[in-house]
Design goal:
The chain is of the alpha/beta class. 32% of the residues lie in helices and 19% in strands. The strands form two sheets. Strands 9-8-10-1-11-12-2-13 form an eight-stranded mixed beta sheet, sandwiched between helices.
């Protein structure tokens, strides 16, 4: 599939010293939570609301109408790439996020430790969010007892909490392997060899490994099974700098998001996790970079936990931290999310994502509040996520005219 729009933007892109900051509040989008309102609407956020009064608002569609995106596609779209063209499994992103040295012989998968009952059904997809030290211990146990399939090396690494990385290394491997996470409790893990993956020799190897792990962990009180997602080989894509003529940097504490940044050649210059540290580090990064991606995880984490009050609190934390970033005076500031995570669903959703863009050359401000309802009527409109970086570039004078 040809990336016509992306190629056009690359042909028009020009370098200048204007600074663009993309602040991603992961999973920020919401629905009305059974009449309680969205987290953005409930939150006390005077700084974001003040920005809204002089900024452009709108909604972003991460992939396509009615399609629920994963974090990978959500960020790929925000970085200005079409996620329908640039597709990569989450395993690669997890590997890059922990700086695992992937080779051309590798197939990577992101793992969740989970808990299953005596009938083999998943009772907790995240094994109670086990701490890192328990993750390390359980992986050591697997390494000690696992017998790798013939001709393959099996590598495991801790990512964080219940998350881990598995890499199959060998000659001639493919990534035609089914994900095993059923995405809900009360169901058995899926088979990696189910159709259309039943003809893949590598899927059969993954099935063998997962079966062994189940036996090895049978006596564990919490992390007694693994769920595998995003089996993939590393792609080769144009870097962010090549595509947009900007010098990028990433400020991201969680491995997944460092991974997706690294995939596009963005150096990770800081690894903060708190709102205050994210804003201060993003401000520092602006001194040496013309594009800064800053990531805040906890709005998504609270949404997945069904914690509306917690999500509201995290928004308020970011709002309180925002002045440190504003003081650095980015020429264009985008505040948005990679997808929606309504607490009422406890999962990612298909809802378009609110976006605020503070920039020169706007048609005035769009309202007194940054929330989904105000964004519905904003001057940006409802656009694909892949178009927000080019729009920011236009406001920053980074795009030439098209045609005579």
């Amino acid at each position: 599939m040809e990336d016509t729009y992306g190629n056009l933007i690359t042909s028009l892109a020009k370098a200048n010293d204007k600074r663009i900051v993309l602040l991603v509040m992961d999973g920020i989008g919401d629905c009305d939570n059974a009449g309680k309102g969205t987290a953005l609407a409930i939150a006390r956020k005077p700084n974001m609301n003040k920005l809204a009064s002089t900024s452009a608002l709108g909604l972003l569609v991460p992939v396509a109408t009615a399609v629920t995106p994963g974090s990978g596609p959500g960020h790929i779209g925000l970085f200005g790439y079409d996620p329908l063209i640039y597709q990569v499994g989450r395993g690669v992103l997890s590997a890059l996020g922990i700086e695992f040295p992937l080779t051309g012989r590798d197939v990577a998968a992101r793992l969740n430790f989970c808990m299953i009952d005596a009938d083999g059904k998943v009772t907790d997809r995240r094994a109670g969010r086990i701490p890192d030290e328990e993750n390390h211990r359980v992986l050591d146990k697997i390494r000690k007892h696992l017998k790798a399939p013939a001709g393959v090396e099996v590598l495991f690494e801790t990512v964080a909490e219940h998350r881990a990385l598995m890499v199959l290394r060998g000659d001639g491997l493919d990534d035609n392997i089914g994900e095993t996470d059923p995405q809900a409790t009360g169901l058995e893990p899926l088979s990696p060899t189910r159709p259309p993956h039943d003809q893949s020799p590598t899927a059969a190897m993954a099935d063998d490994v997962i079966g062994q792990v189940r036996n090895i962990l049978a006596d564990e009180p919490r992390a007694n099974m693994i769920l595998a997602r995003g089996f993939a080989k590393a792609p080769s894509w144009p870097t962010f700098a090549e595509r947009f003529r900007m010098n990028p940097a990433a400020v991201a504490g969680y491995p997944m998001y460092r991974g997706v940044a690294t995939l596009f050649g963005m150096p990770v210059v800081a690894r903060p996790t708190t709102a205050a540290d994210i804003c201060s580090e993003a401000a520092k990064a602006m001194k040496d970079h013309t594009f800064v991606f800053a990531h805040f995880k906890y709005t998504d984490k609270t949404g997945e936990d069904g914690d509306l009050a917690g999500k509201v609190k995290r928004i308020e934390e970011m709002d309180a931290a925002l002045p440190a970033l504003l003081a650095a005076k980015p020429d264009v500031l985008i505040i948005t999310g990679d997808h929606s995570t309504p607490p009422s669903l406890k999962a990612h959703s298909w809802h378009p994502v609110p976006v605020l863009m503070s920039a020169p050359h706007l048609r005035g401000g769009d309202g007194e509040s940054f929330d989904e309802v105000a964004c519905l009527h904003g001057q940006i409109g409802t656009i694909p996520s892949k178009e927000i970086i080019p729009l920011a570039m236009a406001h920053a004078g980074k795009l030439d005219k098209f045609g005579a």
